[in-house]
Amino acid sequence: MSTRSTLNPIQTRKKxxxxxxxxxxxTLSDEKVALLARRNPxxxxxxxxxxLDQLSPxxxxxxxxxxxxxxxxxxxxxxxxxxxxxxxxxxALRTCFATLRGEAVQIVKPSLSIRVPVIDLSDLPADAREAxxxxxxxxxxxxPFNLARGPLIRATLLTLDERDHIALLTLHHIISxxxxxxxxxxxxxxxxxxYTTRRRPRLPELPIQYADFAQWQREHIQxxxxxRQVSYWKRQLDGAPPLLSLPSDRPxxxxxxxxxxxxxxRIPRPLTEAIKSLGNSNRATLFMTLITAFQTLLHRxxxxxxxxxxxxxxxxxxxxxxxLIGFFLNMLVLRTDCSGDPTVRELLARVKTMTLEAFQYQxxxxxxxxxxxxxxxxxxxxxxxxxxxxxxxxxxGAVELPGLSMRPWGGTDDEAKFDLSLAVNDTxxxxxxxxxxxxxxxxxxxxxxxxxxxxxxxxxxAEDPDRPISSLPMISEEExxxxxxxxxxxxxxxxxxxxxxxxxEEQIARAPDAIAVVAEQHSLRYNExxxxxxxxxxxxxxxxxxPETRVAVCIERSLEMSVALLGILKAGGAYVPLDPSYPKxxxxxxxxxxxxxxxxxxxxLAGILPRFDSTVVCLDRDWPAIExxxxxxxxxxxxxxxxxxxxxxxxxxxxxxxxxxxxRSVSNRLLWMAREYNVTPGDAILQKTPFSFDxxxxxxxxxxxxxxxLVMARPGGHQDASYLVDLIKREKITLMHFVPSMLEVFLxxxxxxxxxxxxxxxxxxxxVCSGEALTRELVxxxxxxxxxxxxxxxxxxxxxxxxxxxxxxxxxxxxxxxxRPIANTRIYVLDKNKRMV
Length: 837
What we know:
Blueprint: H1 30-39, H2 44-55, E1 63-72, H3 76-89, E2 95-100, E3 103-108, E4 118-120, H4 126-141, E5 153-161, E6 164-172, H5 178-197, H6 210-220, H7 223-236, E7 260-267, H8 269-281, H9 286-302, E8 306-313, E9 330-337, H10 344-360, H11 366-373, E10 387-392, E11 399-401, E12 404-409, E13 420-426, E14 431-438, H12 444-463, H13 477-486, H14 500-510, E15 515-519, E16 522-525, H15 526-542, E17 550-554, H16 559-571, E18 574-577, H17 584-594, E19 598-601, E20 615-618, H18 623-627, E21 643-648, E22 658-662, H19 663-676, E23 684-687, H20 695-706, E24 709-712, H21 721-731, E25 735-738, H22 740-747, E26 766-769, H23 776-785, E27 789-794, E28 804-807, E29 820-821
Parallel strand pairs: 4-5, 10-13, 15-24, 17-18, 17-19, 19-20, 23-24, 25-26, 26-27
Antiparallel strand pairs: 1-6, 1-12, 2-3, 5-6, 7-14, 8-9, 11-12, 13-14, 15-16, 21-22, 27-28, 28-29
Helix pairs in contact: 3-5, 8-9, 8-12, 9-10, 9-12, 14-15, 14-20, 15-16, 19-20, 22-23
């Protein structure tokens, strides 16, 4: 896509010949150091790799493994001679990099000869040789280079049998790139053939060396050209997002890691032909078509409309560089606007325009672009883009020699320079796609799924290019079945045909004399709770309370609270909790919005309540009138489909909304929890969540359903870690809840023993967290300090407290999942267009 040109004649090797300074480095003056830095500069790309090596020496991330399989009669001396012949031709292969007074300079050794050690694997069983060869290849690729000492190329020969060999070639990226590897192999083949047949090598003289290019680049990319190139890229990348927020399996480390792995798929021939046809019909290249598909994939996975990725280009748009070994590779930044839900054709047209423009401005080195734009830098990810795409187009392939064949041999790539790198290879008949990923961010199963999504998107694009990208199919049929059916197969037989209060009444009948509720120094037995709640229910019935009737409750945490809530349910009504700490305006809104018929409160709170035109009942002041109604159990008028409570959301996204939940849904949630955590009459469950939050529902009613003790913290006690420690110890609490932020405070309670454990809390067997995101760091801290189980639960207020759950196991890494759906619950994760993901 670029125009070839010829280097200016004055920028030839005659003028810019390399200088061997290895013997005089220690004696140079500052002026001479500056002169050498000017005469022997690094290219922009080399300078970046040199800097990264200074920042983190001894890393093999920029090693390029290039292995060749050799079949037939092999002459090892001729192979070694051929490799050294290539090294003699290309000064880049004899180059190392010195640091002089903080300046980096290239040093070219006048001569360099390397040996090729041989490792004989022929004694191994035949089926074990290939595996051992791959192991050795991986070990070789991980061996770092010393840029200052060199050499920056090495080779090892693996002998599998007398006619089967693998040459492991490893070069540092600072002296080579993918195109260079093909040149290296082709020239080795030509020299090997010449040496073994005793003829002259047919290799043309090189007009320049890489150092000439580096010098030319430094002088060429400046002035008007630099200004024009920088101006375009500043406009193009203005306002671009600094990070592509892919949903990773683990949080991003604070310092970028490069641990990698690769997964691959083959694109069937019919689909390959269809994709190429799609491009042709829209006058777009295969590169543009595949970029469109990849950008769509990233758009759908991130829900971002502004997608920025990088792509490598050969950087050899001048004739002198085509047959030269060196680091010419440049990176182009491709930014695609996916907003407005365009069709496939429309997005392809956008990509085409963007790509053609980008290639017109490809001469600006990526390193210079970063220097000019100065994006916010962080050690956690690469600047400008974190995802790369490449369509394999470097020359090379199998080479046939007299008595010997040479063909590429793929080893393993365990380095990931970016979060994701998709490489598509076009063999002519079909495409193959390899996705290299950072294993500290992604699991193998996630990447395999993503590759499947890419292939499904390609199929959808080819079948209907006039379809909006939001509606393109992405999930395979196998994944659809798993998400829709297998993961949602939560059918569990519970007796959900009773209302919540009936389940509690059954427990009262089983153990009437057991302690039901404890609040500070006071308590109620189950039969006392049943009697008082019956009296209140009968009184509420007389006031007109029945199914679907809302009864507002403004009460401090106390025995009266448990009586009030159970009494409302028995009357057939639904309770609406009003937190006494709320502003009067919010309380007024909730009373009016809920259309509450009755307000239950305590005389001490009368002063904070807003005006209420219906009936107000003070449980303490009016109790003589309440108990006069008698303690006979009222007839159950409510059915499981009637609402049990109305809890108002915080209103953080607008006005508060009253979330209504039925007896059936609440009972299902509590029956699941009773079974999941094996709640028995021997348990003591702490109720400390303000009852205006949905977590309080299970804290209040789960123990009463199971015959356990409901222990109510004093008002405000949920904010006092020291008080909670004392309460847990005194009441032998076994099950309790924390929002993660309060768990952090609780675990920071200073009364820790020498082992960092909270002293004396040995009754606690289960803690559940919900309401906020739970971090892995907090999970680790919990397991270090408390010897009990921790579960992460999730659910919106509208869905009867929690709908997913997962045990937090010791030693796990990564983000803490919210888990799988609970009993008789189905979960669907949808994108903003209501499509399943």
